Amino acid sequence: MKIKVKIRSKNLGHYKVPNEVKGGICVDIGANVGSFIEQHSDYFSVINYYEPFLECYNICHDKFKNMKNVVGFNEGVYSEKTVHYLVRHQNKDSGSSALNTEVVKNTGWNPEEVIQEVKCVDLETVLERVGGQIDFLKCDCETSEYFIFNKKDLSKINYLAIELHHQLGPEKISELTNHIRRTHDLVYRSDSYTRGTNSECMYKRKE
């Protein structure tokens, strides 16, 4: 039986994009239906987006297929090149689907409700595809942020705008944020956008 999810026509957080990255290179991990890209497609010279859920990826592809500066990948991003299952959240929203890792067990995701199999690439591949440097990276990937960025070299990312998911637990969140702050300073933490105790944060690479 096919597991169904709800797809909203708009799905956009409150990510702030600084003026100094205008005309630069952007990566969107967790594009959903492309609302962030729609808002900023004219702002960046290059946007690479990653959306693992095929139906949402197809929506993005149809929206941006005629934009030469926007390139999409129907892939997840993870700590390594691998294959994972995408599982549904109890809210049944497409934007809440997550890779089936040990983090999502005993939370709002049901490992038994598999939406589809997902090919995943690593951060090194993401960087390589844009020439080794990212001016602005937006990431909303339902707990996979821990696996994507922790213990990775983040020095080639100028700004990192990321949603931190409380389901990771305080120890993993602390481990991840401490790692990010080795190379980046916290610019802001949003209190106006929450899901439980999730927060949107933006980090800027240290000079």
Report on the architecture of this protein.
The chain is an alpha/beta fold and 207 residues long. The chain has one domain. The protein has a seven-stranded mixed beta sheet with strand order 3-2-1-8-9-11-10, with helices on both faces. A four-stranded mixed beta sheet has the order 4-7-5-6. Helix 4 links the parallel strand 8 and strand 9. The longest helix has 14 residues. The mean pLDDT is 93.
Which structural class best describes the helix and strand composition? alpha/beta
Count of DSSP-assigned helices: 5
Please count the beta strands (DSSP E, at least 2 residues each): 11
Shape: globular
Main β sheet profile = 7 strands, mixed
Taking the alpha carbons of the first and last residues, their distance comes to: 52 Å
For the CA atoms, what is the radius of gyration? 16 Å
Number of domains: 1
Order of helices and strands: EHEHEEEEEHEHEHEE
Give the arrangement of secondary structure elements.
Blueprint: E1 25-29, H1 35-40, E2 46-50, H2 54-64, E3 70-73, E4 76-77, E5 82-89, E6 98-99, E7 109-121, H3 123-129, E8 134-139, H4 145-149, E9 157-164, H5 170-183, E10 184-189, E11 199-205
Parallel strand pairs: 1-2, 1-8, 2-3, 4-7, 8-9
Antiparallel strand pairs: 5-6, 5-7, 9-11, 10-11
Sum this structure up briefly.
With 207 residues, the chain is of the alpha/beta class.
Q: Which characteristics define this entry?
A:
4-stranded mixed β-sheet; 5 helices; 11 strands; 21% helix; alpha/beta; 207 residues
